[in-house]
Amino acid sequence: MALRRITLRDFVIVRSLDIDLSSGFTVLTGETGAGKSILIDALQLALGSRADPGSVREGAQRLDVSAEFDAAPSLDAWLDEGGFESAAAGDALLLRRTVDVQGRSRGWINGSPATAAQLRELGERLLDIHGQHAWQSLTRPDSVRGLLDAYAGARQDTLEAPWQAWRQAVAALDAARSAQDSLQRERERLQWQIAEVAKLAPGADEWEELSTSHSRISNAQALIDAAEGARLAIEDDDQGALSALNRALALLQDCEHIEPQFKALGDVLASSVAQAADAAHSLHGYLRHTETDPQRLAELDERMGLWMSLARRYRRPPEELPVLLAGWQEELKALDAASDLESLERAEKAALQAYMKEARALGKARQAAAPRLAKAITEAMQGLGMKGGQFEVALAPLAQPSRFGLEDIGFLVSGHAGSTPRPIGKVASGGELSRIALAIAVTTSQLGEAQALIFDEVDSGVGGAVAETVGRLMQQLGRDRQVLAVTHLPQVAACADHHLLVSKRQSQDEAAAGPRTESSVVLLEDGTRDQEIARMLGGERVSQTTLAHAREMLGRKPAAPVKAVRA
User: Fold this and answer.
1) What are the backbone angles phi and psi of residue 389, rounded to the nearest 5°?
2) DSSP state of 552
3) CATH code for 3-132+421-555?
4) Numbered ranges of CATH 3.40.50.300 in the chain
């Protein structure tokens, strides 16, 4: 996830700038006021820092900054979850931000709109910036925990599932305890309603059957009269349909030897005679088995009356009573379970034990790793002008378990022998903070997710042999990660694999009344680095002595391949 390129348009005193960056250790140098930190500020803006309309170059309407990183498969899940397009292997991950003179800000990730918070979250995975006054990871509790856990080879995410399970069990138990009175009243209400409807014992399809039977029995006499009338219409000796059909059939049959068409018509009439006879037979059967039943009708009236009474009471259609009863019974079961404090207490205790098992294992790993990490960082501090300084990783037990474990983790540091270690954020000296950050970064260079590290004048307040140590440490760090450092020390600059020179120049702006100051960045080739190192050694005037010294310093370091920079 190395930083490939930084692009600036109309940012502060930069009109247009494209910088290609390489892996390894790169330094940015230049005279005071040249704008060395402008690149750092632009990167922070691209990675979600607060938008400031004052950063728009005078005379321009908006600024535009972007940072291009190597794509990393480890970020694909995060990008997919956020709705951003994942970059294929070999492609770039592009973060872009614009700010206009009214302060309106827009952001993009791989061309898709993104919020500042999303840029910031992704930026924390890509880049870690260390400066005298801009503390990021070393002051964030989650980063401190993550650093120690990574050093310990432990995984904090193993706590998440048992933590959530325990918190849910606690919430269920607390809710049951606080709601015992209301739960009991609700149980009594449900029990009374269930008992009342259960006396009726309504069947699932019973109401439909009752309605059908009641309709048939209450209309039994009308049905009998209709059946008898239909039978007479079919079978009456003189006026019945059967008699008429039979006479018609006989007439056609008598003449069918003369008119062949009568044969087919006779067949139709014969079929009608048969069907009428079948209907008459069925009506006879119906009349034999059908009679009025006042007693059964009274029973149905009473049963349906009970259904209707309960339906009106609970304001439901009668056919919904069985479903209503089943729903109440399920509610009662749930209330019984919720009011079973003993069961809930057992569940909460079991969940806590499962969490504590994971939390103690994580705490044990942290306890074992803390002194080893402290010792390694303390040793790194000794070579950074902090003789006798001490670094401690403090683990204090928490009063209550947390989703992060059973201990609070803090970094304590003392800058020199005899001083009491204090929280790292309260160390007074910015130079000490910077060197401590460098010591931590070198010690943990194989850990963490961000592969690009930026140090903004972390060498402030040091010089001589310590300065050379800082440079060597950054060079060492550059073997594992991409390192970009803003420095004013020639000893540090001489150790870099790549050297960028930031300078100011006067340019004529047609839209302005006069010349304007612009910042530019150029890549120094190996043959030109000695001039900048000599300037850093001796000031504006470069003498043969400082030039020889610069060449000697550069000669101690083998040349490294570089890429072109377009300014």
Assistant:
1) -70, 155
2) H
3) 3.40.50.300
4) 3-132+421-555
